[in-house]
Amino acid sequence: MDPTSKEGIYTKLNRHGKKVFVARFKINGKTYRPVLGTAPQMNLRDAVARREELIKEKKGYRVHSGKTIDILFEEYIAYRKDALSESWYYNIERNYNKHLKNIIGNQYPNNVSVEDIQYHIDYLLGKKEEKPKKILKPSTVKQLKDCVSGLYTYLIDQGRKEALKESRDKTNMVTEKITINIGHMLEIPKFDNKVYFTISEVQAEKLYNLDSHHKRIPTSRLQA
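User: That's the sequence. What structure does it adopt?
Assistant: Structure tokens below.
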């Protein structure tokens, strides 16, 4: 096996001559060397994440039933759909699929770092040397932050429910709960969400007179 730049991750050729990623780790004196996946479908970053998941599984952890961010996000918006407006649902789903899915969609929630998302947000804002095709408005970036914050709030709540269920069922599995909402840690620029417009002096006078007229309406008329 050939070592990579990441600790515990190696590559080798399988019997079909294709390069595969192999993990190596030891738990309770026993050494494991599982095959993680085949390149290029799996990259080095994915291999590192998968190795960490396998270590946790061997130690008796369950990480959200092995669900990726993509699956958990679908559960989250389905859970919130009836409670919020159609426009919110549309914007959150669109922005996730357009700007976050390719970055964190295939990862597990505990493997996503603030730094990864923050770097991508800064890129979308045009703060990095490499510029996107279209620099996002701060208001759109705020929606991305709200998306991540909402998802992790949901995951934290679900983790509490799973832990309670395991306690009642007296199972031996231990759910690795998410306790930190990384969405709250993302830094985005402040922006003015007000709408400004100009009117002529004539329009301003009419508006002033209309406002003054309403203020002079007797209380009895308002009650009628």
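The two ends are 87 Å apart (CA to CA).
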